[in-house]
């Protein structure tokens, strides 16, 4: 993939540059390839298990799609990649030419907490993961069992659905290859995917709470890292309101319809500004993105569409 040694800082610079083009609509101009990655992950896992009933996408690019499906860029995308590039240059100014996190990160016991207090590198793995594109999907299962989680992990590995924060070098390689495939029109785009799973019971429970105006929702969300972990950092209500996107083709009947009905309930219960305030209050990142008028316009139009469900 790369001509340079696997721990050369230039690799980070090369992929960061490509990613800046990508986020500014100069590679995947309508986000089609990126979105298809999400639907492919959900459909493949649904087709290969009896328990998975569907799912939905959240995060980028879903929060930046207008009603026609066009991807709208945001100056914030360039800002944080430029910030990342400055960290790389700072590393070079300190005499660093290598990025030694690769070997540390592939340890099966690795977590981002291992990076705290490390003074060997200036650019941390989390810095890389924050600027690399990945796809976040929620899976909905009849029931979550250890056996199902093991099978999802096996199928994901078999089909190359590698999450972004396990192996930074592999993530960089796959991301770089995906960009090249999009540019060359070859398809076969396999960006890193982060998977979360909830039970159907919790999905229905969360929908019921939202319908009644409850915006602090406590349900069990499992996220796949090196292993599946119970993730208490995910704000389900925020993800649902800010960016959740459903596709009938990858969901059993009733899943998208329920989400549409709840969004309609929210639109009837709250004003556009109320929903905007809720989303902004739940995420500093969303607040920054929505300070850009085209992104704000997209969000407001999305909320308006809820009442037309």
Task: Write up this protein.
There is one protein chain. The chain has 309 residues and is α+β, with helices and mostly antiparallel strands. It has a domain at 9-207 and 221-234. The protein contains 13 helices and six strands. It has helices at 9-23, 32-47, 75-93, 101-105, 125-131, 146-159, 168-183, 200-211, 236-242, 255-269, 272-282, 284-289, 293-306; strands spanning 52-58, 135-141, 193-199, 222-224, 228-230, 245-246. The protein has a six-stranded mixed sheet, with helices on both faces. The longest helix is centred in the first third of the chain and has 19 residues, at 75-93. The radius of gyration is 20 Å and the shape is globular.
| Secondary structure tally: strands | 6
> What structural class results from the helix and strand content?
alpha+beta
Envelope shape: globular
- Mean pLDDT over the residues: 87
What amount of the residues lies in strands? Answer: 5-15%
**What is the ordering of alpha helices and beta strands?**
HHEHHHEHHEHEEHEHHHH
Strand ordering within the main sheet: 5-4-3-2-1-6
Q: What is the makeup of the main sheet? A: 6 strands, mixed
Uncertain parts:
none
What's the tally of helices?
Answer: 13
Radius of gyration: 20 Å
- Helix proportion of residues, in percent? 40-55%
**What is the CA–CA distance across the termini?**
46 Å
């Amino acid at each position: 993939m790369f001509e340079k040694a696997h721990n050369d800082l230039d690799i980070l610079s090369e992929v960061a540059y490509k990613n800046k083009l990508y986020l500014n609509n100069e590679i995947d101009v309508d986000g089609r390839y990126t979105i298809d990655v999400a639907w492919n992950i959900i459909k493949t896992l649904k087709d290969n298990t009896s328990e998975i009933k569907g799912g939905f996408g959240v995060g980028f690019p879903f929060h930046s799609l207008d009603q026609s499906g066009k991807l709208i860029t945001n100056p914030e995308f360039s800002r944080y990649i430029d910030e990342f590039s400055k960290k790389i240059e700072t590393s070079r100014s300190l005499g660093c030419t290598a990025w030694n996190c690769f070997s540390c990160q592939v340890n099966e016991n690795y977590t981002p907490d291992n990076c705290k207090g490390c003074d060997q590198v200036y650019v941390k793995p989390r810095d890389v993961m924050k600027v690399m594109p990945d796809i976040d999907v929620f899976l909905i299962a009849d029931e979550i069992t250890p056996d199902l989680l093991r099978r999802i992990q096996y199928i994901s590995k078999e089909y190359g659905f590698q999450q972004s924060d396990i192996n930074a070098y592999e993530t960089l390689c796959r991301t770089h290859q995906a960009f090249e495939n999009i540019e060359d029109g070859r398809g076969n785009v396999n960006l890193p995917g982060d998977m979360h799973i909830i039970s159907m019971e919790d999905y229905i429970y969360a929908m019921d709470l939202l319908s009644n105006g409850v915006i602090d929702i406590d349900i069990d969300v499992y996220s796949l890292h090196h292993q599946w972990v119970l993730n208490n950092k995910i704000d389900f209500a925020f993800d649902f309101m800010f960016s959740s996107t459903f596709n009938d083709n990858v969901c059993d009947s009733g899943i998208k319809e329920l989400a549409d009905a709840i969004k309609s309930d929210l639109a009837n219960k709250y004003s556009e500004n109320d929903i905007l305030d809720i989303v902004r209050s739940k995420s500093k990142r969303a607040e920054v993105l929505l300070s850009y008028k085209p992104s704000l316009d997209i969000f407001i139009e999305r909320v308006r569409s809820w009442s037309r469900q």
